[in-house]
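Hi R.,

As promised on Friday, here is the backbone we talked about, encoded as structure tokens. Could you run it through your design pipeline when you get a chance and send me back a sequence?
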């Protein structure tokens, strides 16, 4: 294509944006000028612009390495919509299409070529690139090169040869993974020691974090989903069974939901994933098998119906929400059974003891996040070595501050009850003893003769459950996997001896957390604009269906929202809407304008 050469002009003409976001412009200008770069931006920060723009500004074709076929397909489709000549070469490409790619490449007409890493390093690929002008190499999901990263792929190691094979061609490595060890590894493995490193905060300010104590989980989930009518989102469950049961139940409750887990056939999985990508309002209930390479920008919520494995996993999974920068929610429901289940998974796993120790530490860090009365965002970012002042205003702790209380006496009573009953009983019986209940079990074991019997009447059943859950999260109480019997942890002694004070968070009444304030914030549009937005969304769905592409490939929700609020009346005005570049204005301008006028007349 005959693109203007200044990056800012290309940004406007092709992508329809008049401004860069964050450090995008620095990266773009650096790479356009021929520099190497390492880009560490969180999901949703607009990483792809960082190589797509230099690809268009520089002569030649840009080679983009990506491990995920679905992601390549979407990106190429979105670029084509914007009038960019992009193509992909991977195992799913038919021979005739591959021949077309080859011809376009040789004719110098291709702007971007997406390839799988294993293909890039083959002799055949090098032959093909003989005499072809290369604008740059972009290595996406660069953490795959590192064994420390969460998704190591050995074929990424081979990419180190790019530097020697194509000297002088700029390289840009991109990832959303924070860990400093992984970062150093990427630089070393890919030979990017002299590259400029661009980092930005890993905060996702448009995501609201909420973690609730499990009480009546299905009702809690239902109440949460009620404020996401018309939205798409993901509900994560730990087991395949729970995925299937939850999806069935949601459908009965009138919420369209589809399951996704590794136990399903590949065809069923793909069909459900496609439906999720293509529909505007669908709840995908999934195990963590789902999510890698899902680039759907308008996922409005991610709900964890079970505890994830670590803060890293939680951050990554919740990070799939709100990639378009609009408000999104991360919601988790958590209880004592999760702790037992997760600990069991670690203990009974086949990993060496060394790895198990790390997994236990990671789980403990996550439990501390669940139980903290402090700002959730601050706690998450601190885990990644980033300082945040807290009081973010967009997490449950900030929105509905929790009380804390000195629970040292309660902790001692609860632990004494566990100890005095022989560390052989589960939470229910321990609470019965604390509350002085004359149950059969109490009589059978003469636990009413124990000095702690009835000593806990100052608190109610729920409070004792909360105490035992928090003691378990703190590691002061451990739970026997087989029978659920409670034991004292090694550190319990310090509490008995008065050397350690215990502060608990006070569980909130559920209703206060679930409802207030969220709805208007979620809608975010004045009533008049909302109906316009819905009409535009319907038009977009029609366009997308006709072409067999996901709606967000046609344009993002952010673009439709801007149309609904700014209400352009001419093509020229429509062209000023962010996300409407020259190609999209030509292709869809008339259709969207017709909707805007129709709603005008109706009003
Ligand atoms: Zn906060």
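Update: got your reply. Pasting your designed sequence below so it's all in one thread:
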């Amino acid at each position: 294509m005959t693109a203007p050469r200044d990056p800012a002009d290309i940004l406007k003409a092709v992508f329809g944006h008049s401004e860069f976001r964050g450090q995008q412009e620095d990266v773009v200008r650096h790479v356009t000028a021929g520099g190497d770069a390492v880009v560490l931006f969180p999901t949703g920060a607009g990483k792809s612009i960082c190589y797509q723009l230099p690809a268009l500004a520089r002569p030649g074709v840009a080679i983009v390495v990506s491990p995920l076929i679905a992601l390549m397909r979407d990106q190429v489709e979105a670029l084509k919509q914007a009038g960019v000549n992009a193509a992909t070469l991977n195992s799913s490409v038919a021979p005739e299409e591959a021949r077309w790619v080859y011809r376009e490449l040789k004719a110098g007409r291709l702007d971007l070529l997406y390839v799988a890493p294993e293909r890039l390093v083959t002799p055949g690929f090098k032959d093909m690139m003989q005499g072809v002008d290369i604008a740059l190499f972009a290595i996406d999901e660069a953490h795959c090169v590192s064994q420390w990263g969460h998704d190591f792929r050995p074929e990424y190691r081979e990419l180190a040869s790019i530097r020697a094979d194509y000297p002088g061609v700029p390289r840009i490595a991109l990832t959303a993974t924070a860990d400093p060890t992984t970062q150093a590894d990427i630089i070393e493995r890919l030979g990017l020691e002299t590259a400029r490193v661009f980092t930005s905060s890993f905060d996702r300010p448009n995501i609201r974090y909420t973690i609730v104590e499990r009480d009546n989980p299905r009702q809690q989930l239902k109440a949460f989903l009620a404020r996401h009518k018309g939205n798409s989102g993901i509900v994560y469950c730990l087991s395949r069974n729970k995925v299937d049961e939850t999806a069935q139940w949601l459908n009965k409750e009138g919420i369209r939901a589809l399951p996704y887990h590794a136990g399903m056939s590949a065809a069923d999985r793909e069909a459900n994933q496609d439906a999720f990508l293509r529909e505007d309002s669908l709840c995908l209930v999934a195990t963590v098998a789902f999510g890698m390479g899902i680039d759907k920008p308008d996922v409005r919520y991610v709900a964890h119906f079970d505890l994830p494995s670590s803060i890293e996993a939680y951050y990554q999974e919740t990070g799939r929400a709100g990639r378009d920068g609009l408000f999104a929610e991360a919601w988790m429901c958590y209880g004592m059974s999760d702790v037992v289940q997760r600990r069991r998974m670690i203990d009974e796993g086949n990993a060496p003891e060394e790895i198990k120790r790390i997994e236990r530490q990671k789980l403990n860090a996550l439990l501390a996040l669940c139980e903290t009365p402090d700002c959730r965002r601050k706690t998450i970012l601190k885990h990644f070595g980033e300082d945040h002042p807290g009081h973010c205003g967009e997490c449950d702790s900030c929105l509905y501050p929790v009380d804390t209380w000195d629970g040292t006496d309660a902790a001692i009573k609860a632990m004494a009850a566990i100890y005095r009953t022989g560390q052989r009983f589960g939470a229910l019986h321990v609470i019965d003893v604390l509350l002085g209940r004359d149950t059969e079990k109490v009589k059978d074991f003469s636990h009413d003769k124990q000095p702690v019997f009835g000593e806990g009447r100052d608190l109610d059943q729920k409070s004792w459950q909360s105490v035992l859950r928090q003691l378990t999260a703190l590691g002061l109480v451990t739970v026997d996997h087989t029978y659920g019997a409670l034991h004292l942890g090694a550190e319990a002694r310090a509490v008995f001896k008065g050397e350690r004070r215990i502060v608990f968070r006070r569980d909130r009444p559920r209703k206060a957390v679930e409802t207030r304030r969220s709805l208007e914030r979620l809608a975010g549009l004045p009533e008049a604009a909302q109906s316009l937005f819905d009409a535009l969304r319907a038009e977009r769905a029609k366009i997308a269906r006709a072409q067999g592409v996901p709606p967000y490939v046609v344009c993002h929700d952010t673009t439709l929202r801007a149309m609904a609020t700014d209400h352009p009346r001419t093509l020229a005005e429509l062209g000023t809407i962010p996300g409407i570049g020259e190609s999209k204005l030509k292709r869809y301008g008339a259709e969207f304008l017709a909707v805007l006028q129709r709603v005008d007349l109706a009003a």
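One thing I noticed while checking it: The domain at 7-199 is CATH 3.40.50.300 (Rossmann fold).

Thanks again,
M.
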